[in-house]
Request: fold
Amino acid sequence: MNNNTTCRQAQLSRTTAETDIHLNLNLDGKGESTIQSGCGFLDHMLTLFAKHGGFDLSLTCDGDTYVDDHHTVEDIGIVLGQAFAKALGDKRGVSRYGSMTLPMDEALILAAVDLSGRSYLGFALDIPTARVGSFDTELVEEFWLAFTRNAQCTLHLRKIAGTNSHHVIEGAFKAAARALRQAVAIDPTHADELPSTKGVL
Reply:
């Protein structure tokens, strides 16, 4: 019997000279979240990420945001990626692949994920502006780079259309969450199998 369906959770802490992060993740949750990252825009993105992924997520981060948001955003991506890797275990029974083409008003975003064990980010969002409020939009790529490297997955994010930076970024987080929701789901017809001819992911 596949035990992954009953214990797909992770609790992690990571402390450096730049950030102090505590995170709890349940892949089989209800989309509930409590996020206190110290970066309001990232709080918004992670809240909707949890909701659309069906993940329960709690996160606190005490970061050096007096410098800027870079360390906070990147380090949260690291810990969230590590949490996914830990919660997935050997990935037995998972669907492995997921994709979503998601509309967000004028924006249309494609996300495709493979829980391959190989970290790769294909990032083609082309965000129109350098900032959304006080948030540096180049940090979106830094977040997903950190996530994919530590979750050990392949993720493609592509903007098909979009002129509003907030919509493009929000669409990307929602689309990634929906794609991951598909990929981490247990395939009931192959619940005790690894979805790979290699026998390992």
